[in-house]
């Protein structure tokens, strides 16, 4: 990252305050993909319960999930919320991976095309939007793509780094401009640090007095 600048400074301060985050927690690239689907519109603790259900019946693989009756899979995913919708979305991802010939080793998808093409292909899968696609690209496939989420927008807006009406692509492009091309580790770390800040400090009702970014935050200054 650049030595000076908005997101670069944020990264440095959060890294010093929080240290390594070891995110995304998973035992395999496919488990990351499953988590990226299940975390839509729910807290991670609920995703962990659903993944534990899948692990308990040895169903954390593409072929195992496709072999399950849809109703049985839905019950396993129930803790994640919107479980019937997520069942359809997870099965759509599994069918996509199987059709691409990587059902046995989904991480090999990264070798099939360049990042823009892979991203376009993922976005064409039922239920996969920009944030989910980018999470898969970054965390499951190890590709240098910055993930933008609600935490990113809230933190960036309060710091004065983002305007409220920017599109996902505009936010992402602005952040990418401060990142070294090909630097997967920093993209991973920055997103994870923003998630940690958003969950514990920069909440809808923020804990500004305890936040490590308090001294440089426009929102905190006006609070």
Instruction: Count the E strands.
Output: 0
Mean pLDDT: 95
The rounded Rg comes to: 18 Å
CATH class of the largest domain: Mainly Alpha
Uncertain runs with pLDDT below 50, 5 residues or more?
none
Domain module tally: 2
Overall geometry comes to globular
CATH superfamily of the largest domain: Hypothetical protein, domain 2
The proportion of residues in beta strands is: under 5%
Q: Specify the CATH architecture of the largest domain.
A: Orthogonal Bundle
| Count of DSSP-assigned helices | 12
What is the CATH topology classification name of the largest domain? Endonuclease III, domain 1
Largest sheet: none
Euclidean distance between termini CA atoms: 30 Å
Oligomeric form = single chain
Give helix % range: 55-70%
Would you tell me the structural class of the helices and strands?
mainly alpha
Order of helices and strands: HHHHHHHHHHHH
GO biological process, one term: base-excision repair
InterPro entries: DNA_glycosylase (IPR011257), HhH-GPD_domain (IPR003265), HhH_base_excis_C (IPR023170)
Keywords: 4Fe-4S, Endonuclease, Hydrolase, Iron, Iron-sulfur, Metal-binding, Nuclease
GO molecular function: 4 iron, 4 sulfur cluster binding; endonuclease activity; metal ion binding
